[in-house]
Every structure is written in C-alpha cells, then in structure tokens.
UniProtKB/TrEMBL annotation:
Pathway in which this enzyme or protein is active: Protein modification; protein sumoylation
GO cellular component, one term: SUMO activating enzyme complex
InterPro entries: ThiF/MoeB/HesA (IPR045886), ThiF_NAD_FAD-bd (IPR000594), Ubiquitin-activating_enz (IPR035985), UBQ-activ_enz_E1_Cys_AS (IPR033127)
Organism: Candolleomyces aberdarensis
Pfam families per UniProt: ThiF
Identification of the protein by name: Ubiquitin-activating enzyme E1-like
C-alpha cells in the first residue's frame, strides 16, 4: 500500500469512518509547542486533523533540543510555534497549520476567538496560563483537553462545561520549583527572579569557585551553538570579577570595576549586581 492510501488506515480503524471523516474539517487550537506540544502536534498531524492553530510565546533554547524533537540546532532563538509548524507540516500534506508567536493571555484572544475552534489542547508549562485557557474554554463552551507534567509524571484531563469538572474545581498546589528555562530565559514573575538568585546566583557569588572554562571549551569543540557559548563565557567572566570583588578585603579596591555591557558595579552594592545578572533585565 502506498503512503497516500495507507495514511489514514489506522486512525480510521480506531475512530470509525464517520468520526475519521470529520477530522479534516475539525479546527484545533494547540496552546504550547514545547515538550508536550511537539509530541502532541506530531500526533494530531499524523492522525489526520486538517486545521491546526499553534500558539506559543517562546523561542527555542539549546536546552530544549533533547526532547523537543521538532527543533534542530539551527533553529535556536527562532519562534517555537513557527518552526514546529514548519517541521510538522511535512508529516502530512493534508494539514494546514497556522503558527502564532504570542501570549495566549493577550486580550485579542477573547471568548469569540476561542469559539472558532472545535477543540482546544493545552500543552503548557505554567499553572497561570493553564488556568486562563480553562476559564476561556468554560466561558466559551469549547471542549478542552488539559495536559501537564510534574517531574516524571504526566497528566491528561478532558474538560467540558457542565459535563465534567473544570481545571480549577480542584485547587492545585503552588509549585515550589520552576523549569530552568523559565528561570533563566523567560522569567515572568518576581518569584522567578528570586528563585533564580537563591538557587543559582547565590552559589555563583558566594559558593565554591567553579571553573566552567573547560566545560565550555569542550562544548565548543563539539559544535554547540557558538553564540550561546560566547554568552555563557561572558557571564562566567563577569561572575568571576564580581566574586573577586566581593572577596576583596578592601572594598575600595573592588569599587568601580567595569563589567562588560553592565556598566560599573560597586562591590558593596549587591542591588547593582542583581540588576546586571537577573535574566531578562540584561537582555
Ligand atoms: Zn470548576
């Protein structure tokens, strides 16, 4: 059997011909093109869904590549939604994927906007956005399939207004940890910066000396993203300057040290150090 003939065979056998026939005209919104989103997008494209809107606000980070398999090294820093749509479109000639590089919480994504979809799939990494999509789907009476991860565990839950409980019916515990990519690259709440400084910056400034040069050299030899490595190297140098300044007996010696692109840092003013290092601010 050729690929074209065989393409829908299994989905048709599972769903039945009637339901399968509806897939081509079913308009799906997939929110999130990360770890869950890449997997889900591949699955719905191969199943035969014909119209997919894919929304994600994030850009691709080198650290995503071990699991977010729709992305390659050359895609680092590009929009997740755009690249994922491009990659997955090739899996099925009958699919149309509309990528949107944006935040689902923007006001233009209002209730009527949600109502254009037959089905919404959540593939998000934060409670705030998951709860927002839940509220919009409940208000607009749009079926939502909610999925998420906690450590190594995954959850999935179908939500339909007045038929099932909603995502918020059972209160969720506030997470005590955050994904490294959120903390490092896309902090959106004050707590992200506090967690980052407590778990990372604190160790860098007051912990044991750690020489990352060897690690970075090795990564460079293996052909890792040169720009990313240059940024890490710059960061390591800056950390070393601040560390030395903090440990200097005479704070006068340490005052007025020039840092790359960060201006002048006085060793006694840790606030300025924070401004320089807190991710997001320095971008
Ligand atoms: Zn509820």
């Amino acid at each position: 059997m050729s690929t074209a003939q065989g393409r829908g065979t299994h989905a048709k056998a599972i769903l039945g011909p009637e339901l399968y026939a509806k897939l081509a005209d079913t308009h799906v919104l997939l929110v999130g093109a990360g770890g869950i989103g890449c997997e889900l997008l591949k699955n719905i494209v191969l199943t035969g869904f014909g119209k997919i809107t894919l929304l994600d606000l994030d850009t691709i980070d080198l650290s995503n590549l071990n699991r977010q398999f729709l992305f390659r090294k050359k895609d680092v820093k590009q929009s997740k939604a755009l690249v994922a749509a491009q990659t997955a479109s090739a899996f099925n000639p009958n699919v149309k994927i509309l990528p949107i590089h944006d935040n689902i919480k923007e006001p233009q994504y209002d209730i009527p906007w949600f109502q254009q979809f037959d089905l919404v799939l959540n593939a998000l990494d934060n409670l705030d956005a998951r709860r927002h999509v839940n509220r919009m789907c409940m208000a607009g009476n749009v079926p939502l399939v909610e999925s998420g991860t906690a450590g190594y565990l995954g959850q999935v839950q179908p939500l339909l207004k007045d038929k099932t409980e909603c995502f918020d019916c059972i209160p969720k515990p506030t997470p005590k940890t955050f994904p490294v990519c959120t903390i490092r690259s896309t902090p959106s709440q004050p707590i992200h910066c506090i967690v980052w400084s407590k778990t990372y910056l604190m160790g860098q400034l007051f912990g044991e000396d750690e020489d990352a040069t060897g690690e970075l050299d090795a990564a460079e030899k293996e052909g890792e993203n040169a720009q990313e490595i240059a940024a890490l190297r710059k960061e390591a140098t800056a950390f070393k300057i601040v560390r030395d300044a903090l440990r200097s007996k005479n704070s006068e010696d340490a005052a007025g040290i020039g840092l790359p692109e960060g201006g002048i840092v006085s060793a006694s003013v840790s606030y300025e150090i924070l401004i320089f290092f807190v991710p997001g601010i320095r971008r």
